[in-house]
Write a structure and sequence with these properties.
- Helices cover about 0% and strands about 50% of the residues.
- With about 700 residues, the protein is mainly β.
Length: about 700
């Protein structure tokens, strides 16, 4: 049975309120699961694990499931996996192992009060699981789910060992560490005593792996293999061995060909390698297994390849990189890093694009139905025309630093012109129009400025200066060319280290700094003389808290990204409505970076552990009610937990009544949509019947817009 955590977002105004109902199903992961790091086969499915995230391939029908739809986990960073006919065991990055057996799932936390360990490998031997970790070798009862023993201080002179891999043969234990190989083979001794372990000597270097073949232990290095008696079995100076496994009594090796720079997979027979023919697209192999009569390889970009059937399998419409930043443009979300960017249009999936001669992407804008991409070193790229705009471009005013190149830190459309910030320039605020007429907007500076971000409201531009270059904010009036400085020195900022700014629907300007959250009651600097700090009546909110990002949704809620979770703040009530944390939501991390909304009401949240999105239902308001819709209709109350409203214009009062006219609830809605959790104002869930939806005018006149049948 699936249990969902539930949150209610309430915005109280004029005795009416709108609400959105959120549970775990509203969250989605946007992770790079195309680059497969390791794979495992269990219960007719191949599980492919990336650095963060996973997918499963059902080999009976070739269907692919992603992340928690494939296997439910609280932590999607699976470091290692092991399985036999009865058990499937996962080692997570947080030091916890998950043991699956039929329909049962059990957890064993391997961490101690003194150390958060790293799980390096897992091996199942009989009823026990041997865990090689940064805290030594840990023996776990796989049936009873408890730790039997820890062998940690078994190195020379009782020093602790970071165990990378282990083998058990005839009750002898072999462990591999960066310090070498240690063997426990005298069963009369105590394995907790370091003197019971013997270290093997390999001259000047230690092996990178070991494997069991025909009841003997073999050791491999970057380019050679030794047998149990430490005799040289194989050597090749033109390769670097990655991994060795025994499959169907054959020795299979993945290695990097130092001449072609590509990875290969080969059989080792009579000290000779016989390569398996692979498609040219496969250049980097991370793992391989034997499953359902076929040999499978996994790696970067291609995900999974069935060698015997010559078939590729990879999840579609997913990111193929981990983004550094994101931007929202109307219905689209852009994610980017280096020379790669991806577009998610209307939440339908990602289209990945790699640029060949343009990198270090900082920002993206749309102008005249064309996409412009800014770079911290290459200027601007008109993507649709494949045209780079640099200092040599006609009429260009861009500054090219001899060492850093052309740094454009932000780019935005405003008043039918494309505006940009030329970081490190004497003339950092530039714009050009449809006719390629460029203009420099004089910020009256006597030395180069280093702006990183700007926001527009009417004739005012709020410009954030790089905290590493002095920080603070400049406000520029495009009509009067007036300039205003906000800084800690003049008392108009609580800190010069400004991380983000956002302007809400009421014209309030919200500032995220390393010392907390502040705001101004107007975007016009002539209308204020000091900043304000959110206060719930008893204390200043977020004071001293490093705020990384801030964003406004269409319901005018303030979304605040911190290093301690994601807050949603209601300025009308002057308190935060709720906090999303990793402990109470599917959030990948409490370290929140960028937050961006698309017009459909989806919040995209870039965390330290990857990108997520949350469907809030707070979509952009429409110009009229022609697209108004309520669904599902009819609503099956035993199957559905909420009613969705979309297609509102801005600022609506909604009233829900029973067929007899009894008021169930009244709501004020600023956004173009929301969802209702089916509970009345008094907290009573509605019963089957017919319900009427009215729009109420400012004068109190009611207009019936639809009826809803609840079954």
């Amino acid at each position: 049975m699936m249990f969902y955590r539930v949150f209610f977002l309430l915005i109280l105004k004029f005795n009416l309120f709108s609400q959105t109902y959120i549970n775990d199903t509203d969250w989605s992961f946007h992770l790079n699961i195309k680059d497969s790091r390791h794979i495992a086969f269990y219960d007719n499915s191949i599980y492919s694990f990336s650095t963060n995230g996973l997918f499963s391939l059902d080999i009976t029908n070739n269907s692919i499931l992603r992340n928690n739809n494939a296997i439910e986990l609280n932590n999607l960073r699976v470091s290692v996996a092991s399985q036999n006919s009865e058990y499937f065991v996962l080692g997570l990055s947080n030091g916890i192992i998950v043991i699956y057996n039929s329909d049962n799932k059990n957890f064993v936390d391997l961490n101690t009060e003194d150390e958060d360990l790293i799980i390096n490998s897992l091996k199942i031997y009989g009823d026990n699981l041997y865990v090689s970790s940064s805290s030594g070798l840990i023996i776990v009862s796989i049936e009873e789910n408890y730790i039997i023993e820890r062998y940690n201080k078994i190195g020379e002179n009782g020093n602790p060992l970071n165990i990378l891999e282990s083998l058990v043969i005839n009750n002898d234990i072999y462990v591999l560490s960066p310090n070498g190989v240690y063997i426990f083979d005298n069963h009369l001794n105590n394995p907790l005593d370091y003197r019971s372990w013997t270290k093997l000597n390999f001259n000047t270097e230690n092996p990178k792996g070991l494997f069991l073949f025909k009841d003997s232990v073999f050791y491999y290095f970057d380019n050679k293999i030794y047998d149990a008696e430490l005799n040289l079995l194989y050597i090749n100076n033109n390769i670097k061995i990655n991994k060795i496994k025994i499959i169907n009594d054959d020795i299979l090796i993945t290695y990097n060909d130092l001449i072609s720079k590509n990875d290969r997979i080969a059989f080792l027979n009579d000290s000779e390698l016989t390569n398996v023919v692979l498609p040219d697209i496969i250049t980097h192999i991370n793992d391989f297994i034997y499953a359902d009569g076929s040999l499978w390889v996994a790696g970067d970009k291609f995900s999974l390849y069935n060698i015997n059937k010559d078939e590729f399998f990879s999840p579609t419409n997913t990111l193929n990189f981990t983004p550094d930043n994101i931007i929202g443009l109307n219905d689209d979300i852009y994610a980017f890093s280096g020379n790669r960017f991806s577009i998610n249009s209307r939440n339908t999936g990602w289209e990945n694009i790699t640029l060949s001669n343009f990198t270090n992407i900082t920002s993206i804008a749309k102008y005249n139905n064309q996409t412009y991409i800014a770079s911290s070193s290459h200027g601007i790229l008109n993507f649709d025309q494949n045209l780079i705009i640099d200092e040599l471009y006609e009429n260009s005013l861009l500054y090219n630093d001899p060492e850093e190149g052309i740094h454009v830190s932000d780019i935005k459309l405003n008043e039918n012109q494309l505006w940009l910030l030329n970081y490190g320039s004497m003339n950092p605020l530039l714009s050009f129009d449809n006719n390629n007429q460029w203009k420099n907007h004089n910020l009256k500076n006597n030395s180069p400025l280093f702006p990183v971000e700007f926001k527009f409201k009417d004739e005012y531009i709020w410009i954030v200066i790089d905290p590493l270059k002095g920080g603070g904010i400049i406000i520029y009036n495009t009509l009067t060319q007036q300039k205003f400085d906000l800084s800690e020195d003049n008392g108009l900022l609580n800190s010069n280290n400004v991380n983000d700014i956002s302007i809400d629907n009421n014209g309030y300007v919200w500032i995220a700094t390393d010392e907390g959250l502040i705001y101004f009651s107007s975007y016009n600097p002539n209308d204020f003389s000091s900043y304000l700090t959110p206060n719930d009546g008893s204390q200043f909110l977020f004071k001293g808290v490093n705020i990384n990002s801030i964003e406004i949704d269409y319901e005018n809620n303030i979304w605040i990204g911190s290093e301690n979770g994601l807050y949603v703040f209601n300025n009308m009530q002057n308190n935060f409505v709720f906090q999303f944390k990793k402990s109470n939501t599917p959030l990948l991390s409490d370290h929140i970076g960028t937050i961006k909304f698309n017009d459909l009401g989806s919040a995209y949240i870039l965390t330290a552990d990857g990108l997520m999105s949350l469907n809030t239902s707070f979509s952009k308001p429409k110009e009229n009610l022609l697209d108004f819709k309520v669904y599902p209709n009819p609503l099956k109350i035993k199957e559905e937990d909420r009613l969705f409203f979309t297609g509102f214009s801005s600022g609506n009062y909604i009233k829900v009544t029973s067929l007899s006219g009894e008021e169930i609830i009244s709501l004020e809605v600023q956004s173009g949509g929301f969802n209702w959790n089916l509970f009345s104002r008094d907290g009573i869930k509605i019963k089957p019947g017919v319900y009427l939806i009215f729009i109420v005018s400012d004068e109190g006149n009611e207009k019936l817009i639809t009826k809803v049948l609840v079954l």
